[in-house]
């Protein structure tokens, strides 16, 4: 399969990439790892006239410690995030999640910015970033702004990004050692995308859950913060009963996806099962 | 529109004008005639097109040749040291890690990435590392043994004879 012809430009700065997006509008696409875009172009589902490669922009590739948060460049690969000592220590939910994406080869090329811009409803990053309470820094023709991860995903392959905006970095609040995290994922066996993925970040004092953030991917058109499960955990001593009661609230009131991988009813069931698994794993 | 690319493949420098849409796997196979890198699925699933790009295993059916500008690439043809096989190649021979051999170059290049970061992987870690590589013949068991053979050899441990 061969993509339709296009022009290619390797950008040397984000400002240059934004300028080109502004100039070419819908005809241009950012290229990061290419591991969502190139397959779509090979199938001719996508036929941009210009690809703007951002993989050579050094500013987009670092992981910086900014005191109370980590700032992860949009062009960091899943693999670089999975193996980063800073991320494993200060934002473990991201490292745990990164390790479940695709396979070694995909993790070596695919980037966090590319994944969230693409916003596949079965992608893993969205759940982790919502559970981590991350914010997304973008730059566009109208200047720079930040968008909370909870507001970023707006539908199937749809985000709050404007046409001429480039994702610069993901800001992730650091967690202390009183926090515990887990990601439980029901793998689509061939692609390894999430049929259902549940990310949990909780602050614990012994058995007592001080606060909790639970988020899902795969269940619905877009990843979401599960308010009900999160608040059912906060302020409780966690035991079989309280965990089961919280997990039973999973994905209530969301419009559940049904497809040839899993029906709506099955996904609703999986959401409860994977919420319970993630909570148990977090405190194990 | 054609673009100039300069890259190193198996230690040799190359410079070519390529169409932007040319896939890296076609550049390697058709332009450089390095046909050891296979195309199984053409959809980034099977891993038979795996090569090392700047030391990392990647599926080059899902990369453009222009993305490899400036890169240092190793394909299966570049793994042996002249006449002496790489420990992974030796392992696949000794442990019967292949039948038809179609998946083998990709298996070996993925295993090379694994061993570069974890020279003594457990069986579980080896199986985990091969998630993106399919073999339709062997049932994987001997592939795992072949990689263990290579790890042992690299670590100067005794290898089964
Ligand atoms: C075989 C296979 C298995 C996979 N398995 C999984 C899995 O288990 N879980 C999972 O979550 N994902 C999975 N993926 C998807 C993978 O993680 C992709 O790498 C990722 O979705 C896209 O990242 P990329 O850097 O390759 O983006 P690209 O393909 O380069 O770009 C994707 C889209 O994002 C836009 N874009 C990229 N970067 C930016 C930016 N900085 N600002 C604005 N827009 C941008 C592009 O214009 C394009 O529209 C899989 C992919 C493959 C091929
Ligand atoms: S041919 Fe590239 S992964 Fe199958
Ligand atoms: S040896 Fe035939 S596909 Fe693996």
Give the helix/strand class of chain A: alpha+beta
Strand order of the largest sheet of chain A: 4-5-10-6-7
- Unique bound compounds: flavin-adenine dinucleotide, FE2/S2 (inorganic) cluster
Poorly predicted residue ranges of chain A: none
Number of strands of chain A: 15
Instruction: Report strand order across the widest sheet of chain B.
Output: 2-1-5-3-4
Largest sheet of chain A: 5 strands, antiparallel
Assigned CATH class of the largest domain in chain A:
Alpha Beta
| Average pLDDT for all residues of chain B | 96
Describe this structure as you would to a colleague.
By secondary structure, chain A is of the alpha+beta class. Chain A has three domains: 7-53, Uridine Diphospho-n-acetylenolpyruvylglucosamine Reductase, domain 2, CATH 3.30.43.10; 58-173, Uridine Diphospho-n-acetylenolpyruvylglucosamine Reductase, domain 3, CATH 3.30.465; 179-283, 2-Layer Sandwich (Enolase-like, domain 1), CATH 3.30.390.50. Chain A is built from twelve helices and 15 strands. In chain A, the strands form four sheets. In chain A, strands 4-5-10-6-7 form a five-stranded antiparallel beta sheet. In chain A, strands 11, 12, 13, 14 and 15 form a five-stranded antiparallel beta sheet that branches. A three-stranded parallel beta sheet of chain A has the order 1-3-2, covered by helices on one side. In chain A, strand 2, helix 2 (37-42) and strand 3 form a beta-alpha-beta unit. The radius of gyration of chain A is 19 Å and the shape is globular. Chain A starts with 6 loop residues before the first strand and ends with a helix. The mean pLDDT of chain A is 97. Chain B has 161 residues and is α+β, with helices and mostly antiparallel strands. Chain B has two domains: 2-78, Roll (Ubiquitin-like (UB roll)); 87-154, [2Fe-2S]-binding domain (DNA polymerase, domain 1, Orthogonal Bundle). In chain B, 48% of the residues are buried. Chain B has helices at 24-31, 87-94, 104-117, 123-129, 141-154; strands at 2-9, 12-19, 50-53, 56-59, 72-74. A five-stranded mixed beta sheet of chain B has the order 2-1-5-3-4, with helices on one face. The chains are: A alpha+beta (284), B alpha+beta (161). Chain A binds chain B through residues 1-8, 10, 31, 34-35, 38-39, 41-42, 51, 53, 55, 79, 83, 102-106, 108-109, 190-192, and chain B through 1, 3, 19-21, 23, 42-45, 47, 50, 53, 56-59, 62-64, 66-67, 69, 110, 113-114, 117, 129, 131-133. The structure holds flavin-adenine dinucleotide (FAD) and FE2/S2 (inorganic) cluster (2 copies).
């Amino acid at each position: 399969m061969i993509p339709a012809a296009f022009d290619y430009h390797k950008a040397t700065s984000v400002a240059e990439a934004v300028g080109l997006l502004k100039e070419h509008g819908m005809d241009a696409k950012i290229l990061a790892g290419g591991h969502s875009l190139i397959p779509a172009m090979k199938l001719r589902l996508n036929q941009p006239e210009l690809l703007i490669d951002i993989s050579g922009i050094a500013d987009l590739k670092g992981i910086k410690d900014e005191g109370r948060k980590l700032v992860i460049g949009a062009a960091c690969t899943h693999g670089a995030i999975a193996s980063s000592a800073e991320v494993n220590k200060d934002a473990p939910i991201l490292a745990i999640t990164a390790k479940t994406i695709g396979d070694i080869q995909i993790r070596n090329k695919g980037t966090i910015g590319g994944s969230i811009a693409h916003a596949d409803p079965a992608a893993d990053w969205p759940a982790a970033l919502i559970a981590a309470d991350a914010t997304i820094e973008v730059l566009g023709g109208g200047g720079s702004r930040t968008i909370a991860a909870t507001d970023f995903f707006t539908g199937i392959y749809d985000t709050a990004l404007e046409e001429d905006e480039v994702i610069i970095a993901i800001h992730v609040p650091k967690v202390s050692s009183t926090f515990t995290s887990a990601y439980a994922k029901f793998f689509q066996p061939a692609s390894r995308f999430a049929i259902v993925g549940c990310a949990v970040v909780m602050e614990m004092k012994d058995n007592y859950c001080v606060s909790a953030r639970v988020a899902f991917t795969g269940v619905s058109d877009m990843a979401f913060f599960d308010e009900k499960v999160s608040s059912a955990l906060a302020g409780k001593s966690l035991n079989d009963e309280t965990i089961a009661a919280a997990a039973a609230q999973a994905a209530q009131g969301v419009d559940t996806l049904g497809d040839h991988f899993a029906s709506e009813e099955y996904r609703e069931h999986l959401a409860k099962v994977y919420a319970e698994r993630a909570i148990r794993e977090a405190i194990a | 529109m054609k673009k100039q690319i300069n890259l190193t493949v198996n230690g040799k420098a190359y410079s070519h004008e390529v169409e932007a849409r040319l896939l890296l796997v076609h550049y390697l196979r058709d332009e450089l005639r390095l046909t050891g890198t296979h195309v199984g699925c053409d959809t980034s699933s099977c891993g038979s097109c795996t090569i090392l790009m700047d030391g990392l295993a990647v599926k080059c059916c899902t990369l453009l040749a222009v993305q490899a500008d400036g890169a240092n690439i190793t394909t299966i043809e570049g793994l042996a040291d002249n006449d002496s096989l790489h420990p992974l190649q030796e392992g696949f021979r000794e442990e019967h890690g292949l039948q038809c051999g179609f998946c083998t170059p990709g298996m070996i290049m993925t295993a090379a990435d694994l061993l570069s970061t974890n020279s003594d992987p457990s069986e579980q870690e080896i199986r985990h590392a091969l998630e993106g590589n399919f073999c339709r013949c062997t049932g994987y068991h001997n592939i795992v043994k072949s990689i263990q053979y290579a790890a042992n050899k690299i670590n100067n441990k005794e290898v089964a004879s």
